[in-house]
Amino acid sequence: MPTSTPGQPVGSRGRCTPLHLHPLLLLLLLLLAHTTSRPAQAAIDIPPNFKKPPEITAQPESITAFSSDIMLTCEASGNPKPTFRWVKDGVEFDLSSDPDLKVSTGSGTFSVAAEDQPISQYSGNYTCFASNELGTAVSNEVQITTENPPTMQKEKKVRLKVEAGESVVLRCNPPASIIPPNIHWMDDKLHHIKLNERVVQGLDGNLYFAHTKVEDSRNDYTCNMRYARTMFSKEPITLVVNPSNSVVRNRRPQMLRPTGSQSSHHVLRGQTLKLECIVQGLPTPTVQWVRKDGEMSESRILKMNNGTLLHFSDVQEGDGGQYQCTASNSQGTATHVYSVSVEAAPYWKKEPLSQLYAPGETVRLDCEADGIPRPHVAWSINGNPLSEIDPDPRRSLQAGVLSLKNVDYSDTAVFQCKATNKHGSIVTNTYVYVIELPPQILTPNDKRYTVIEGQKAELECKSFGSPRPVVIWENEDLDSPLSPPRVTQLSRGALQIANVSSSDGGLYTCSIPQAKISISAMLEVFNRTEIISPPLELRVQRGKPAIFTCIAKVDPRLDHQLLWRRGRQKLMGSSIDDKYTFEDPDLIVANVQEEDKGEYTCEIITDLDTAKAIGSITIVDFPDPPSRPQISNPKARSLTLSWTPGDNHNSPVIEFVVETEVTGVETDDWEVLLRVAGDTLRANIPLRPFLSYRFRVLAINDVGMSKPSPASKPHSTPATAPESNPVGVRSESVDPDTLVISWEEMDRQSFNGPEFQYKVMWRRVVGAGPRWSFNFTTEPPYVVNRVGNFTAFDIKVQAVNELGPAPDPVPTIGYSGEDVPLEAPMDVGVALINSTTIKVTWAAVNKETVRGHLLGYKIHLRNHGPQTRHHREQPARRERELPREVVVATGPNEQKRMVGDLQPYSRYTISVSVFNSKGEGPASEPFSFHTPEGVPSPPVSLELDSPSETEMTLHWKPPAQPNGVLQGYLLQYQRIVVTEDSPMQVVSIDDPEVTSETLKQLDPHSRYRFHVRGRTSTGEGQPATREGATTLDGAPPANINISVGETFVNLSWPSGERHRSVGFHVRYLSKNGWGKGWTASERLDSSQSFYQLQGLQPGSQYRLELIYNNTAYWNREIQTEGAGVMQVQSGFATEGWFIGLVSAIALLVLLLLILCFIKRSKGGKYSVKDKEEGHIDSEARPMKDETFGEYRSLERSDNDEKRTASQPSLCDDSKLCSDDGNLDDYGNSHSVQTEVIMDESLASQYSGGGGGSGIRDGPETEAPGGSPPLAPPAYTPTNHGLPISSPLLD
């Protein structure tokens, strides 16, 4: 809040000339910023620490006391602090003279402190006076009424005995008291007695039963009364309801409370009024309320206690009038009229406001009160009646307005206006404060007001000064916002805007022009909260859920909360029984029971407004079954059935269903006989002869259907002759020379008497005369033999019983059985329309030869195949297709028919026959005709093959149906262009044997559409169509993606669309010393898109290359995953120098042996011959076995690190690894496959202890014609199973 300085007043928007003020006035201005809230009736705020007349802030209230608990409150403000005194019954009441009174410090409030003392002496009328040096304020006059606490008299136990259906009243009779007690009827377990339309508690506390039931019997009906500080329980009442020995009779309603047809009630304005109508009757009467002389207020007048109580809250003068309650049931109605008259204690219509006045001003105090009867208004000054004060020529009183002219400082006082009538009095205090002060605005600047559209907004501008400052309001457009009556400036300076709209929002300015000070206020208008989908009045069956929905439209700038109430109680979610579930915007009430019925309120709450809507739950159920169905007024063909309705359980009966059970018929089930309205309790029932009936009644309401009532007594009707004949009389003759007469059987209820049977009658239509043949039977059909084929008869069937026949039936015509036709149609002719359609004609047959109902003609067409056949058609196909026959049926009156879908260039035979329901007659003599030549069907297939980028070869098969002599083909093609059609190219082929054609000079970058049509002398047939593009030259893949594992590497690449596949190799070189050189894969195809290179060592480095046409065009270095493996170093036995040395020694030994052998062969024998031979053998075996055994032992010792000779190489199970030149041949579908088989010993000999495989690194030599190489590929030693390269063995 801004503070004031001598040069800048509070809230000023501009500069102001400094004022020279008295120090006391300066202190006052400094304190203006700390103003306190104004009392409700005051017009101004006076700063603290400044003298102020007394004002009553807490009024005493009238009380009724039963003990010493008496307290009268009287609080007042003022400066100096006021002193207090009391007047009782017009006499000064000295509080200090009574030791039993305790007075609150600093106020006029006192209470009775003594307990267990008589209090009657405190009864009387009291008035409080609060005074200081500026005047005296007076409180309202209040009354203390004392009364002894109510006591219960000893009473006898009550035992009532009634019969079921009778009415009864259980009386409470509470002790009399000025304040009536709250009464509740309970059982001995303190459970409330369940109240409903039948059992009602009256305002007098009694419990009323409209009619009793056996289950009402109990011995603990207890009336409990609660007074202010006392509770009583009456002796329990025992009620015994005996079942009635006779049928319980329904009774029309009768008033139990009030009695008579009308009564009067007087009530004061603002009080609460309750009118009740409690009735007896059976069934339970329903009570309706209406106002006879006007409309009832829906907001203040509520129907309670199941409609028996009319509750008025805050009664107004307009509520006076006549109110009628009407109780009704099925037996009648009862009414009572209340005449309500409304009077009023005095109330203010206009109150004078406390004001500050400058000396010399005129005071005008306007006081106006109203009431019934009209109150008397009197003025007092400082508590002294005006009549007891000396007259003053400046003072005048006219029509309740007190005027005082030319006031001075001594006129400061508190004025009282008092209004009195027979119902009480009211007093208002108004002070006149004569003082001289500069103007000031006390309301803070830039205050923000928020309001909902349609509400009332008040923009405060509290001012202070004497004389009172003149306040002016302006809006942000510098226009005066005042436009009565919607916008009003109140006397205290506030701007009041009624029925605010969004256009009223904005900035407002309050100013005091003479002081050049102002403040601003911002008004923000929000949209009104509206409930657009309120909860409904639900009618729910017991045990089922009820769902209320509440959807509202809320201003998005406002937060809102959805709150549900039942009555006045806020509903909360329950985790124990899940009774209430809140799923915004729904409230789900689970398992609805009797205690859940009532009103449910949806509240949408924002910071500024609240929207409410009310729904309700009414417990409904299936109606109880009707009772006592009774038969009256019985006649031969009718009777009257009446019944008594059951309880409808809050859902009116819509209709009653009367069902009947007829004995002696096919089924003994209950069937619906008729339905009547829900307000009908009797029905006239039609009957049929010779039957025994029982009846029962069911009731239907909105919930469903009741159980059936008990069945009535049986009622039988006398027999009579049949009244009707069977229907559906007809001939069902099938076999020739027979007449089969059939009809619909009559039900048992139409027999009307005993010995029921059918009289079947027939006669020929032509030549029989009037005589009828007849016979009797008990069921259909009836067969008459030897009557001829397809002869017309008059037939009829009559119902007959022991008492006579039914009325003579009307005959109908029927025919005897049919036979197949005898003759074929004549003059059959054919006219050719085109190659696929003919027109067939014939002459009508003689109907007598049809021997039945003529159903039509059948045209038989038989296709014997083409006139000549294409030389390419196969005999097996010809046998499978021929002959083919088509049958076309016509109507009975046709003699020509167009027949289509014939095969062109074919030979047909045709014949015509006639048919009836019995079958088809003989066909006419067949004759042949030929259809002319037509256009061929599309070629069977069309395939495309592209030998180069600019050529396309089309392959097709001849049409399946040439439809003539095939003369050749028409080939059409064109480029497919999005924007416009390209020209069609045409190639004509005159040789029908040609089934392929190569098109050249095509655009390799375009797609084409190709059409091939067959051609006969008639024209061109439908085309076979294909779209395609030429195949582009291929290239090896370039965009290679690799993925490395421990012992493998995956290579992937995109395959070129429309590109020809080419071959290439992958080769790799170990950079860790594994192997002796490059190792190549088998031939790969560019269309593969993926290849996995296997057999690598974990944790090793390799160099990869792709080879095409013996040239490496891509390379990459990789590192396999996993831990590296140490290379086992070769022993000196594998070194070249050691092998050379061993070879030299072996050669030397061999030479020596040869010399010895020559010498021996020349000159004789040596003595050491056997030893030498043994030596040779012993030396030779190690060379053959032990040497290889040495390498094998190495293999066995290192088998965890080396591969065996049997392990397949990279070329195993694949095409032969060939050079890149041969790969191109492979791409052109020429392959070379070589199977390599090597003996294990030979592999061991060349492997040096480790089996392996490899392929050539250089080009292969291939025999002419693609034969295998002359020598198998060499297998070289490997290191740890990895293949290395080696030259080809010779």
From TrEMBL:
It is a single-pass type I membrane protein. Residues 1168-1204 have a biased composition (Basic and acidic residues). It is found in: Cell membrane; Cell projection, Growth cone. Keywords: Cell adhesion, Cell membrane, Cell projection, Disulfide bond, Glycoprotein, Immunoglobulin domain, Membrane, Repeat, Signal, Transmembrane, Transmembrane helix. One of its GO terms (biological process) is cell-cell adhesion. Residues 54-145, 150-238, 253-341, 346-433, 439-520, 529-618 form the Ig-like domain. The chain crosses the membrane at residues 1136-1158. Residues 714-723 have a biased composition (Polar residues). Residues 1266-1275 have a biased composition (Pro residues). Its main location: membrane. One of its GO terms (cellular component) is growth cone. Gene3D superfamilies: Immunoglobulins. Residues 1-42 form the signal peptide. CDD domains: FN3. Pfam families: Bravo_FIGEY, fn3, I-set, Ig_3. Residues 706-732, 921-945, 1015-1037, 1168-1217, 1240-1290 are annotated as: Disordered. It comes from the Eukaryota. Residues 625-720, 722-819, 824-934, 938-1034, 1036-1131 form the Fibronectin type-III domain. Neural cell adhesion molecule involved in the dynamics of cell adhesion and in the generation of transmembrane signals at tyrosine kinase receptors. During brain development, critical in multiple processes, including neuronal migration, axonal growth and fasciculation, and synaptogenesis. In the mature brain, plays a role in the dynamics of neuronal structure and function, including synaptic plasticity. Belongs to the immunoglobulin superfamily. L1/neurofascin/NgCAM family. This is Neural cell adhesion molecule L1.
